């Protein structure tokens, strides 16, 4: 048979007197206590409670600053994407469109290396010799077939043959890159943005913004390319 254990205030007080470190070892309990603050003399338990609450407040303030920083960065990226969309809509012809894409990556996103590679031939036959078509559909499919089919950006370090195909033999020897699959009803090509910094583009981050940018660029380009 279980007996109900009864503890009175004197026993609690005696226990705390014999265990002066009780609250030091049970800090989680302090914020739940409701203690009067005697005027005048210092009350160590209350001071400890106030210090703990102050630490919690500082931690929450730091978290809020981090969230605000992320929000400001998202606003900046969204504004840049909006401006890029307007500029692409204003382009007439494939040549100025490709030029604006490459210039936009360099000026707006501080890209050190930019390469645009397209699969379908241009509607304007005079542009067939443009570097954007030099790699050839077969080579791009062989090196980046799964990426073209997935529609998901790649971030990180490229294998040497992939880097050479996109940027040339001497570029990104130890760097990193973002490779955007361009799709609009089907694969159109790749937009590669490279950095000499191996840590600039690392895997595992949120790619939502990159996906949207790739979709906008692909839809603008699709009008200037021959149907598959």
Verbal overview:
The protein is α+β, with helices and mostly antiparallel strands. The protein has 2 domains: 42-90; 93-222, Beta-Lactamase (2-Layer Sandwich). It contains 7 helices and 4 strands. It has helices at 9-18, 22-25, 44-90, 94-108, 137-150, 160-167, 208-222; strands at 113-118, 154-156, 176-183, 187-195. Strands 1-4-3-2 form a 4-stranded antiparallel β-sheet. The N and C termini lie far apart (83 Å). The mean pLDDT is 85.
| CA-based gyration radius | 30 Å
CATH topology of the largest domain: Beta-Lactamase
Helix-strand pattern, N to C? HHHHEHEHEEH
Largest sheet: 4 strands, antiparallel
The percent of residues in helical segments reads: 40-55%
N-C termini distance: 83 Å
| SSE class | alpha+beta
- Give the strand tally: 4
Supply the CATH architecture of the largest domain.
2-Layer Sandwich
How many separate structural domains? Answer: 2
Judging from the principal axes of the Cα atoms, what is the shape?
Answer: elongated
The order of strands across the largest sheet is: 1-4-3-2
Number of helices in the DSSP assignment = 7
The CATH homologous superfamily of the largest domain is termed GAF domain
How much is the average pLDDT?
85
Could you tell me the strand content as a percent range?
5-15%
Name of the CATH class of the largest domain:
Alpha Beta
Poorly predicted spans: none
